[in-house]
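Review form for a predicted model. The reviewer records the input and the model, then writes brief findings.
Reviewer: anonymous (R2)
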Amino acid sequence: MSINRRDFLLFLGTSLGTASLGLFSSQEKQSFLPFAKPTSAANTLPFQAIKTSIPLEIEGLSPLQQIEKYNTYEVIDDLVLPEGFTYDVILAWGDRVGDSRCGYNNDYLSFVETQPSEGYLTSNFEYIRGKTWMQSYSIVMGRSLPFEAVKAAVSESDGAIDAFSLPNGDPLKAQIEAIAKEALTDLGIGVISLRFKDGEQWERTHSTEDRRITGISGLEDGRYLKTTGPGVAVFKKANKLGYEDGLGDRAIGTFQNCAGGTTPWGTVFSAEENCHVQVPEPVMADGSSLSPSQRPFLLSDKYLAGCGNVFGLAGNKYGWIVEVDPANPKDYGTKHTWLGRYRHEAVGIRAIAGKRLALYSGCDRRGGHLYKFVSTRRVRDPKNKANSRLLEEGMLYGAKFNADGTGNWVPLTLDTPVDPVLPSQVAGGMVTLPNSNRQEGGIVAITRDEEMAAFQQQFETLGDLYEGNEEEKQGAILIDAHFAANAAGITCTARPEDTMVAPDGTLFIAFTSGNPGGDGGPDKDVFRGPNGELSYEYGWIMRLEEKEGDPAARDFRWSILAMGGEPADGGMGFSNPDNLELDNNGNLWMVTDMSTSYHNRAIASRTKEGKSLSTKDLLGLFGNNSLWFIPTQGENAGTAYPFATAPMDSELTGPFWTRDRQTLFLAIQHPGENGGMRQNNATETRHFALRTTNGKEFMQKRKVPLGSNWPNQQPNTPPRPAIVAIRQRN
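Model under review:
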């Protein structure tokens, strides 16, 4: 099936002749596009599309002209924007924030305006990849850490060290603690104050609200994070089956903070994603943590993991949604356990006066689920900060998709029947469940349907899987949400990386990759490519509509469109859709999330041993990650236009508009992740077997920088993750 403009517009709920999506009221709609001045016509693009690494239909070139234009291509180690646009670097790794510093690998961004063009910018800091962080640390920070000594010790210890079990006073434990402390300081959340000065550029105002919430907040400074909901009963429970951290309902820090959301009442949600990298993810039958020894410390050129080990962090306190009020300098975050513990990506918020509050989030793992929290009480005023209290009581649901485009929300509660996802139903043929030996705890991987039948005979309901009184059991289910959802038969999906709610309640979900992996794989009946392919790498965007538009509805309808891929196959010219943003006219802005190891990977032939390469093996065609604009009104509706390409080895994340839509905030994450610090402007020429938009194959010579020097862009300077503000030069 070829995907075209009309397919996409019908998917969005419009047609080529309509003026807009119909998502916005007449008061909210404007007659001009982002960046454009109010006098601009509605069907005029606000920029000239940039050139990407492959031919696109929007250029209107003949196949011969495409070959001539694209037989060579040079990748640029910069944030490449259309002519007439520029960016200000607002904040970079190592810059001062409050009494700490800007963290590493910034992700979700939120700008809560206190007055026009002034307010609080909140940023997540997601993760650290060993090589580039270690290579740059001493240059950026002006001090050194014992990397080589600890790497050597780790290498001699079969790849990892249980620093938690080392005696206090052990020199190696002290060295590991020093590295882990700095690494966790570089993760979490940051708040800074900004204003647009004299209509010329953005600047920091360094208010008293500026602060960092790090991975070790509370460890030494007393700035613990708070917790709410049934998980608190587990945290405070005596005589746990597993590990006791002695902190009760308090939590030390937040880390692996990926996407998020901004509430109508002015708070920001931060999603803790891959916390299993730093602490154990599986838990005991009562929801208590496994010992920190189960996630030992690891340091190599590629990995930095197990940083919670040396501090004895309890794994069940990470993997939550954290709420922060940027305007309150004493607020260091609250983890709301009713929203579930899993590898959170994004928070879609629906707050309507008189209705129950609904929050949507995805679990970004291969085979992860889509979830919805619904509050018990109703919203009175969507802008009232008292709405945060609604998160303390409600229910968490998982989405069950039927192949016919219908679906329903299944509550994750004690009396939910055990009806496990079958291995035969998912790509890759593997599903993880809570270990049937409940005294041992943890999880097991199931590869045969027969094993699921035995599991179902042993446990009738989710309540049978967990131990404690009713509140403690509910808390344990929420703590173990992903594995409980597998046991309840919640549909396994294709890495849901963004959940965005349009004003009419339509939910858009970006599913980034359909390949299976070590955590599982997506449902075979739901997640197929445009020609029925399984393991479709290029990704999808799903539209989900609740029954009768009710946020608390238990039934929904869904439709899905494969958008990624090469134009010759009906794709829009990009791969792996990630963060989504709608502007006030309903136009879609989207960034991509291609795996760094595949960026610009040479493809000299499209076949290997007589077989066509898989979609994943063709990722190198698409060059660097990018930002795209898809108008949904006017003569250009339904066409994808590239607006930006990222620096080397990086990912563009967290696009967020100012209210006047004259500035787009954007985070540039992990520049130089593969190549490290670019030395002496080094480049390499690679070959790519491209195709024209009508499928004619030709060879491209591509000049590729080796590593990155962004944002300084001076030879031999360290790459630094940073936040930028994009605007027109005039």
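Findings: The two ends are 43 Å apart (CA to CA).
Further findings: Confidence is low (pLDDT under 50) at residues 15-32, 38-43.
Recommendation: see findings above.
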